Predict the structure of UBX domain-containing protein.
Amino acid sequence: MASHVVVTDSTFKRAQIKVTPGKYMTEVLEEACKKLGRNSTNYGLKNNSKQIDLSQTFRLTGLSAGAKLELVVTSRSPSVVSVALQLPESLAAGVPGGRLVDKVPSDTTLWLVLRKFETVGGTNLNITGRGIAQTESGASGAGRIYYETPVLNLAGREVSTFTDLQKTLGQFGVSGGSILLRLTFRKTDTPLEEAMAEIQQYFKTSDEPAEQPAPSSSTESAPAPAPEVESVTEAVSKIAAPSSDAPESSSTKSVTPTKRSAPEDESKSSGPRPMTVFAAPSGDTPKAALQPHNDMDYEPTVQHAKQHQEVLKTHTMNKRLPSYAEQQKQEEEKAARLAKINEVIIQVRFPDQTRVENRYTATDTSLTLYNSIAAVLRVDQPFKLVSFQFGKPLAIPKDEKKLLIRDIGLDGRVLLNFLWEDGVSEEVRKGKCLKAEYIQEAKELPVPVVQTIEEPASQSLDKGKGKETDKKENGGEKKNKMMSKILAGLSKK
């Protein structure tokens, strides 16, 4: 049964929209904005000052026929949406619960959401560039590859066309909270190479940054779909019998990463790096504690008190949490700052209090760091490196893909603690860590000399003035108390 609603904008223009019980409110918004000459991405709907959930159908909103709706301007800053992608059985193997979860801004298109989930959590899935081989009836061989399009079920609404996948989550009424997307695939009659060319036209803007890697990736390498056509075709042409899973298995085999093996082999073959070795302290008392000091350095000054008051005042003030856009900006600024750093000085402290120091460049990975430390160890036992520069213990991962500066965020001078793994024996833990030749070359750790900062004369004068004013105030109080007693006695008489 069809009915209608009336949408009114801020200038009191009216638009009558026909609705059915199963019509989504996003469609009502789009039709109203089209009639009123507005952009639907910047507006929402309200009924009696209550925001309407645009992701629901007209039946679920509780609106009556002929309801009057207001067209209101929504916030331009995107909100964060927690998106869960339910994978089909063909992709769910190896994924806990068969579901991937990530947070994206509400102005992200569904296509970009799928592209993001292809590599989220270290996975390497093929969602947007799938092909399926099919032969003609009675024919033998690999056949031709046809495109298999992703189909999303969003709150009971099916989204499968390239036009709908270009829409953002906000255009489907998802402006916050969480949403579940159910993913399936549907075979099309479009050859894979034609579909890839069409994808390039639809999603040229979103795929331009992803087309920079080498074009030799296969179907499972999702970031650059257009150059994958040749590799997918070659992979499927080797399959004897047509199968829907055959292109995936062949492409998976062709994605073996060989480029990242160079740093590991190079670091192992090059041997130990030239390092600066510092010997363990000879006594129990730290050398810094034996240095002469001035007791006045521990006396707080007026400036210290003012700074402490400022800190207390700052911590008691309410602060607004950064928005998603501000967080993105901070991450971009941090990435730009780390990109300008060419080297970092890393000092590793061992359990026997010996230390080694070395410089690492921007191209060195955490695996390079681990290999360089393993090369100077006396025994070959598992260990880990822990950093405390972020306020809490942070284990440095042993990964050939993570760069020390850009990915882990090490910069300047960094001190890492060397810890043995749990399975290492007590004899190894209590013994020397470094090889004999490195212990012989070790030198004493220099102790920095801190110069005493003299207090300005103005602050010392302020202290003297403060004492004098206190004396005057105390004397004045005593005189006032004596006068009050005398006056009280006269009044009684």
